[in-house]
Amino acid sequence: MSDVMVDVHGVHKSFGPLEVLRGVDLQVRAGQVTVILGPSGSGKSTLLRAINHLEKVNRGWVSIDGELIGYRRSGNKLHELKEKEVLKQRTNIGFVFQNFNLFPHLTVLENIVEAPVSALRRPRKEAEATALRLLDRVGLADRADTYPRRLSGGQQQRVAIARALALEPKVLLFDEPTSALDPELVGEVLDVIKDLAGSGTTMIVVTHEIGFAREVADTVLFMDGGVVVEQGPPAEVLDNPRQERTRTFLAKVL
Ligand code: ADP
Ligand code: MG
C-alpha cells in the first residue's frame, strides 16, 4: 500500500525485565483516524512515544510516510540518527499530551509560534499569522495574548492542539487528550479533534471516550498486555468484539 502514513512493524520495548510492547504492528493510512483503547498499563503511551522515538525500541521499526524514524538503513543494518536529525523528523509528528504541557511563561500566541520559529526557522511574522489562523480554528482567536494559567483546561488543550498543528505535521498523536479535564470541558476538545478528522488529518488517538471512537475512528484497536488484541472498524470492535479480553474491557468503560 502506497498510502500508508504510519507503519509500526514488530515493535518490542522493555524497561529492564518488564516487557511493555511485545510485538506491535500497526498501520494508519493517510487521512485516517485510529483510536487505541486498552486498560491502564497496557503500553499505549509507550507505543505513542515509540512512534516519535521518545522511546527507543528494542526490536522492530517505525516509519512515517515511508521514512524510518530514528534510524537510517544501509544494507541490512540500521544506524541510529543523531539527536538533531531525530528532532527534525519529530516536526512531522505532532504530539498532544494528557496534561497539555504548554510553556507557562509564554503567551498562547508565543506557545504556538515557538517551534515553527526555532525548529523550522520560519519568519516570526509568518508564524504569527499561521498561529492566529489556527487559534481561530480551535475557537480561541481572542485569547492570543493570554497566559495558559488564565485558561480553562479545555482551552489549554485546544491551544496545545493548535501548537501541534503549527508544524504542519504528517500525523497527530493524542495521548488521552481529555483525561485531565473536568467532564463539562471534554466535549469542546473532542469537537476540535472531530473537526480535524473531518478535514483529513492523519491521527492516532488514545482515549477512553467510546462514543468519540464510534463516531470518528476509521479503525479501533484494542491493546492489552503489550499486544494488539484486536482491531477493525468501530462497528466490529466496539459492538461485536471477537476477543473475550475486549469484551471485558468494554463492559467496564461503557
Ligand atoms: P498505558 O499508557 O497503556 O497506561 P504505559 O505505556 O504508560 O501504559 O506503561 C506500560 C507499562 O510500562 C507500565 O507498567 C508502566 O509502569 C511501564 N513503564 C512505562 N514507562 C516506563 C519507564 N520509563 N520505566 C519503567 N517502566 C515504564
Ligand atoms: Mg498512558
From TrEMBL:
Residues 6-250 form the ABC transporter domain. InterPro entries: AAA+_ATPase, ABC_ATPase_HisP-typ, ABC_transporter-like_ATP-bd, ABC_transporter-like_CS, MetN_ABC_transporter-like, P-loop_NTPase. It comes from Streptomyces machairae. One of its GO terms (molecular function) is ATP binding. SUPFAM superfamilies: P-loop containing nucleoside triphosphate hydrolases (SSF52540). Signal peptide: none annotated. Its main location: membrane. Keywords: ATP-binding, Cell membrane, Membrane, Nucleotide-binding, Transport. It comes from the Bacteria. It is found in: Cell membrane. It is a peripheral membrane protein. This is Amino acid ABC transporter ATP-binding protein.
